[in-house]
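Example 3.2
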Amino acid sequence: MLKTGWRIKEYLFFVFLGFAMMLSAFSGIFTRLNAYLTLPVKGMLLLAGLLMAVLSLRGMLVFFLTHMKIRTFSKKDIRSQILMQKRLIRGPKVVVVGGGTGLSVLLRGLKKFTSNITAIVTVADDGGGSGILREDLGMLPPGDIRSCILALSDMEPTMEKLLNYRFEEGNLKGQSFGNLFIASMNEITGNFENAIKEMSSILAVTGQVLPVSLENITLYAKLENGMVVKGESDIPLRSREYQSKIQRVFIKPKYSKPLSEALRAIEEADVVVLGPGSLYTSIIPNLLVERLSKKIKNTKASKVYIPNIMTQPGETDDYSVFDHVQGLLNHHRNLHLDWIVANNSGPLPTKVKEKYEKQGAELVSITEEDRVKLNDLNIKILEEDLVEIRKDYVRHNNLELSRLILSCAYEQKGSRWLNRWRSKRRKKEV
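Structure, written as tokens:
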């Protein structure tokens, strides 16, 4: 926003300079200057001033339309898109905490309802291309952050394909172009946080994407058999290998420092959303960053948890909706959830169900037993058929999910307004 303000000020400066040159050419405002100017010079000054003013005004208009993500100069379309942007700007402040595919799916839906989005993303990933860059370059893993930036960006399909492209041969095999882009920005800016901000600016991201911390966090898990596993990518593998469920996870360094912008976003939020995403390797690692977890606990915003729509082999095998909640609360006992958003769809199509059963995954749908246990914890339930199947992959329906989250946010905004109104009335009565 600061850069945007400076760009507009630059354009305005040249507009005024152009008008000043025009005035100096044909008026008597600057009489002393005009006395030394010949008629041809005045004509050139007038023409230069006019040209500067017109080009600056045009540049400012194009910049404004681009910043507002308006790609058409049709009067009707511009009006409707400006109104839409105003609606998004006035939308509730949503903070989403997590990582992985589930988070990016949700963000694609949320950006259609509000532009006040902050995604706080785990940096415990150590697998795939992100793990290689983390080890080779000593940088934080960019994979989950890249996915969130692309989900919130406004770009052409070709550009998105380019940033998601994975090399298939040579030393870069398995590495995505987007990860390399972030790695390059990290080298140029000398700071991972600045690299993310620059990439977000280039890709016209709605809201902001923040790593939970700039520290080199490593995730560990203690299994029920007593074994301790090091590394986010190794945890589900070892859990399945030893057929032992995850008892708890923890991070090193234990006292990691969160980003101040992340803390501020939570403080100002109308709703804080945990998930969707891998329970033990994407969501809980963020809550293990102590100051961040305290900020979430103390925020006045609605706190919403979204369990994954499918169980994850080696991580949440046989988990019910309530088991997901219990796993979360076991790592943050002082956290009170206001809402849980749960799927209540029917069975999956046979072909899709068999595909996931081969992988050891099953659909997570809320049951009557879940409802009773959640009511005992004073957690309100929002349930809907949230399943969306694309190319035989099961995902959350991001638009329906976003609507449910926004309903929590608007309820919170309404209660805040009501409390402020009651507070003002009490002061007047006193």
